[in-house]
Amino acid sequence: MISGPTLGREHLRRLRQDAVMVAAPLSVLGIAGPKALECLQGLLTNDLAKPGAGSITYGALLTPKGMLVVDAWVIRLAEQFVWLTPSARKDPTLGIFRKSLPPRLASAEDQSAGRTVLALYGARAIAMLADAGISPAPEPGRVIETVFGGWPLILARPAIAPFAVLMIVGSEVVESLTNHLTRSGISLGDETDVEAARILAGWPALGSEVDEKTLPQEVRYDENEGVSYTKGCYVGQETVARLHFRGHANRELRGLVWQGGPPPASSVIRPDGKPAGEISSVLQLPDRTLGLIKIRREVLEQGVTELDAGGATARLVSLPFATSDLTE
Questions:
Q1: Mean pLDDT of successive 10-residue segments in the chain (328 residues)?
Q2: pTM of the full predicted structure?
Q3: DSSP state of 218
Q4: Beta-strand (E) ranges in the chain?
Q5: Between the CA of residue 287 and those of 9, 93, 186, 240, 284, what are the distances in Å?
Q6: What is the DSSP letter of 323?
Q7: Whole-Å CA distances, 316 to 137, 148, 158, 204
Q8: Most CB atoms within 10 A, among 45, 108, 118, 325?
């Protein structure tokens, strides 16, 4: 049986409809220098120049052949970039920067020891931040620099993400900020909430949907606004652009919905008996289970809506999961 987080009805309601705060598993890297923008433009899949200062952008670092190495949220401030990378991939990311950033033009510094990232989930997250006196909330895709308790506080609100807003604060004040927000009615969450929200949003993760041979278009980077096709060259750009303009991905990330508990196995079979893909993530709800799969394109072209997924029948659905996929 495939393992994954389990949410009860109240837990699911709170995560989606209220406001839940979690210490995000993201490391903080600061990147600065006279040519930091130009250097990062040659590495990230997305455009950092167009949105300007005060923006948050999603993207990834690729191999020269266009395969995903690590994803990132990149905040552009007036004087530096704040690069948020999955904590498990911090060292490889720093290794890429050491090799790719000319020291006289740009340099990367690990700031994780002194800064904490908090993620807020739920439909009421922005409103409850305002109720707590932490305002104004940034517009989608934008960043606001403010203070809390005399310490700098960055609020970043992506246009598309599994979460509503990120807060970056000095480690000295994170406990005070957390206590203040929970007293204002925001619930404390944990890694279960992080993984559940990611699956509900159909957001790929390293080690689950993303391996060393995954291309961005296979895991919804177009839909998640993680790739620019107009900004110019970056590492791996040729493969990504060729696939976009001249071809298509052979696999696409989709959702699966089972009635009842999780399936006993991970293999998914096409109606003709051939392999269709492997279940990569599951989320168990009270009366059903949701899953993610990189499914063969020909299955989608055949209009298949039900599959033998892990030994049980599942509906094949688009992502992110719709409300009707959660409760019917």
A1: 87 96 97 98 98 98 97 97 97 96 97 96 95 89 94 96 97 95 96 98 96 96 96 95 90 96 88 90 95 94 91 95 88
A2: 0.96
A3: G
A4: 20-23, 26-32, 55-62, 68-76, 81-86, 107-110, 115-121, 142-148, 151-157, 165-170, 187-188, 251-259, 267-269, 275-284, 288-296, 306-309, 312-317
A5: 10, 40, 27, 39, 8
A6: H
A7: 37, 45, 28, 17
A8: 45
**What would the two tokens of residue 252 be?**
């696409």
What is the SS3 assignment for 317?
Answer: strand
Q: Which strand (E) or helix (H) includes residue 175?
A: helix 174-183
Query: CB-based burial of residue 212 (10 Å sphere; 0-12 exposed, 13-18 middle, 19+ buried)?
Result: exposed
Strands laid side by side in the 142-148 sheet:
107-110, 26-32, 81-86, 68-76, 55-62, 142-148, 151-157, 165-170, 115-121, 20-23, 187-188
| HSE-up of residue 64 (Cα within 13 Å, Cβ side) | 1
Tell me the C-alpha to C-alpha distance, in Å, between residue 50 and each of 128, 159, 167, 192: 31, 15, 23, 35
CA atoms within 13 A on the CB side of 23: 12
Separation between Cα atoms, residue 184 and residue 146, nearest integer Å: 19
| Cα–Cα distance, 149 to 4 (Å, whole number) | 38
Output b/e per residue, 147-178; b: 16+ Cβ within 10 A: ebeeeebbbbbbeebbbbbbbbbbeebbeebb
DSSP annotation of 25 reads S
